[in-house]
Predict the structure.
Amino acid sequence: MNPSIDKALVVETHANFHTPNYAPSHLFVRGEGSYLWDSEGKKYLDFVSGIAVTALGHCHPAMVKALKEQSEKLFHVSNLYYNEHAPFLAKTLSEMTMGGKVLFCNSGAEANEGLIKLARKWGADTGRYEIITMRNSFHGRTLATLTATGQEKVQTGFAPLPEGFVYANFNDLESVKASQTLSTVAVMLELVQAEGGVMPVDKDFIEGVAAWCKEQNLLLLIDEIQTGMGRTGKDFAYKHYDIEPDAISLAKGLGGGFPMGAVVTGEKLQDVFSPGSHGTTFGGQPLACAMARTVLDVFAEEDICANAQAMGELLTTLLSPLVKKYDFIESLRGQGLLLGLVIDRPAKELEQLLAERGLLTVCTAGNVIRMLPPLNVTSDQVREAVAIIEDACAAWKF
Ligand SMILES: *Cc1c(COP(=O)(O)O)cnc(C)c1O
């Protein structure tokens, strides 16, 4: 299909010219909807979605059209100037969430940096800066966000780490309360620890944390970078619970494949920054905002969240006999279309068996097969994936 693409040359050039922090496998050259094709023309059902990014699948016609149209008008002008998309995207995000104001940026880590800076600026008057985060969390790879991340493996070798983060046990309210000091300003957490092995939050825990934050005048910061934008079957995962965050961070699915992040605030944080106190060159540029607006338009037109909820339920129902049948599958957990098959041993090999059979998944936390289908995946595609999983499980030999 692509005789001009020489995979061996790509692999060799990658090895020679990329810093060695990734270990990529396939070379994909084309995508359409829920499918990808590699350089040899082999077709794959994509249950990774670029790590929860391509929420509408690959090359959705509305996204292609928006990209073409905007690219012929204007790419970038910087935040020195207004643009015709950013304010309306901000308005939509605000109206969908806590009604505050929005800060645009380019990635998840940058969005979480924004959350952290907002919290510190808000706390500065009272000398409070410390943020309680959860063990086994994941918040990004910049120095502050890898410090917020409660996993030693992402921190090793990068000392000295910035101060001001303490770790509590996820789903353990007493542990969170015990982590409070006079310097505590906020609690920051995910509602499904996705990289951490698809660990959903307990309802009692998160509602308890939210109530306690209110009582103690602490900020509740929710990292919705992976759980947001419909991934869990609601537009934002916090809406599954009776809580009101002071701010959420978004990225991944927001641009549907175009790099884009945002911090969406509530009333307390919306006016904390003043001109000059934070900034970014690219954040909120017209091209990215046109893409994100299109994502949200398609969400409304195609009722994407309802589909994510229904397809998540279908996938769960169809996989449950396999969970019973195979001793090596411990459980299936997650929410909406953020699901993990928990294996009782390292699962990288199973991920490979699935890929050989044409299903892409991403092994996380060593033993969890994480599935992140596009949110507009169809029931036929879900059935196709389940058949492949069944076949791979039957073929797996230890
Ligand atoms: C992916 C992710 C991040 C980091 O986002 P980047 O765009 O890779 O910087 C932060 N938090 C969560 C929950 C994520 O899933």
Remarks:
- The pocket of pyridoxal-5'-phosphate is lined by residues 107-109, 112, 138-140, 190, 194-195, 223, 225-226, 251-252 (CB under 6 Å).
- The chain has two domains: 7-60+303-395, 74-302.
- The longest helix spans residues 304-325.
